[in-house]
Design a protein that fits this description.
This protein is an alpha+beta fold and 137 residues long. Helices cover 31% and strands 20% of the residues.
């Protein structure tokens, strides 16, 4: 059985940039902005391409970035375990694991609050440590 994957051979970063360019409207701008914030929050983030969408990881998935007709959705893999006092999560709130942020046209996401969520997700993936510890377990 042959697999025909048009993205074969292209780096995930290139595929994400391509998706942002293809969208060409507010969704592309929004996805590009959120990508930039994720990279600022975690300079060691790894960009991946899974399930036909951008995925940002660090010791596990931080979040995915999907684009739909009326929304850009950032789904945090372990969002239910993150503190969200500013209530950025506004979608997938009933699940036990994931949480999502739906961004509609014209909406702005608080940059510092979003970066805090990204850093929390990284710390959770890294076993609760936000920075490498010198203490032995």
């Amino acid at each position: 059985m042959k697999k025909s994957d048009p993205s074969q051979g292209e780096s995930a970063s290139k595929l994400i940039s391509k998706r942002i360019a293809e969208l060409g409207d507010w969704r592309g701008k929004t996805l590009g902005r959120m990508r930039k914030l994720i990279k600022e929050a975690d300079p060691d983030v790894v960009e991946e391409w899974k399930w036909g969408a951008p995925v940002w990881s660090h010791d596990g998935i931080i979040c995915t970035g999907e684009s739909y007709k009326n929304v850009v959705k950032l789904t945090f893999a372990k969002g239910a375990s993150l503190k969200d006092p500013a209530r950025l999560f506004n979608s997938s709130l009933d699940g036990n694991v994931r949480r999502a942020i739906d961004i509609h046209e014209g909406e702005e996401v608080d940059e510092s609050v979003f970066k805090t969520l990204v850093r929390q997700a990284v710390a959770l993936n890294s076993g609760g440590k936000s920075k490498p510890s010198k203490k032995a377990k």
